[in-house]
Design brief:
The protein is mainly alpha-helical and 143 residues long. It has helices at residues 2-29, 36-62, 74-77, 88-113, 118-141. The radius of gyration is 15 Å and the shape is elongated.
């Protein structure tokens, strides 16, 4: 069902866009020499989430859909939440939680699509693998 796949992809796109914003906020908010590694990790993840968003938007267009970048409804469509924590470990925990939510969302999408759309399934599997790495990174950063 193309309409259902497009909806799933737009929800994934919204999730990635929220994750970009969360990681970017955390990157710019973290200070101190002791947190330089965490700060760099946040920036790397933001960059990778942007790549995921680009891939999802391209796939939506390939399926003759319209990628939804509307900021007014972004949080409603996203599986992940934005976070405005001020404490570094709270940021790490928020990112870990968001990554786990994203992984489960991708897992469900992959299961739902099954073998009906191998290209989309492959894309989602590729993105989910990176999200799993992100979750591992955040877990490793927990004090």
């Amino acid at each position: 069902n193309r309409a259902q796949v497009l909806q799933l992809l737009n929800e994934a796109l919204a999730t990635e866009l929220v994750c970009i914003n969360r990681y970017k906020r955390h990157y710019y908010t973290v200070t101190g020499v002791a947190n330089a590694g965490i700060k760099a990790e946040f920036l790397e993840h933001a960059t990778q989430e942007q790549q995921h968003a680009d891939w999802l938007a391209q796939r939506i267009v390939q399926l003759n859909g319209m990628p939804d970048f509307n900021p007014a409804t972004l949080l409603d469509r996203s599986h992940a939440e934005y976070d405005d924590s001020r404490e570094v470990q709270a940021m790490v925990r928020a990112n870990l939680l968001a990554e786990r939510v994203a992984i489960e969302s991708y897992r469900q999408m992959i299961e739902l699509i099954g073998d009906s759309d191998p290209t989309t399934k492959q894309l989602l599997t590729q993105i989910m693998a990176v999200e799993e790495e992100h979750a591992d990174d955040m877990r490793d950063l927990l004090a």
